[in-house]
Design brief:
The chain is an all-alpha fold. It is built from eight helices and no strands. It has one domain.
Length: 193
Amino acid sequence: MKDTYIVFELVLVGFQVLIWLLLLVLSVFGYHWIHIDFVKDWATQLSFAALGIAYMLGVIFDKAIASLPFSWVIGGGALTKMRDLPSPLEMRMQILARKAEVYEVLEKRINQHRLVRATVVNLALISISALIFFLTRLGFNLRLLIIFVSLSVLFLALALFTGRRSAYTLTLELFHAREALQASNSQEKARPD
């Protein structure tokens, strides 16, 4: 069941990527080459192909966002407060080695963080791609430009804020779970048999 949720999240992220990629392709090549009759006739096959492509793009995009430097997600000020902590990956492995149940709960939170982070970044890319599409296909319109630039700035600011807060909270949760497991292990060892 857990794997089903992860696949669903990756497909969702992949469809978000497909939206902004499609907008960019339509910006460059236009939409006159699309034959509606072909799309109708092959709708089922195209749907399955889009599902597979969305999953693949979701995996790639998730890995690309995850490979960004940790400081980009958390922010400089938060890193100085957390400098003495081991890396989040190291804390996750320590928790997994000590108590798998706690790790599974934290893993759900990490997956939620990944989905939110990817969605907000994709929303910023969708708004920028939509701006490019409307400017190239519909011509310059000052009101439209202001709206889409505002949306792009809003989503980018939201991406940075959300990524920073969510990653900071997750790191603290990992740290406190690790500390609690270490304390309980120490108490168990100190107990006379």
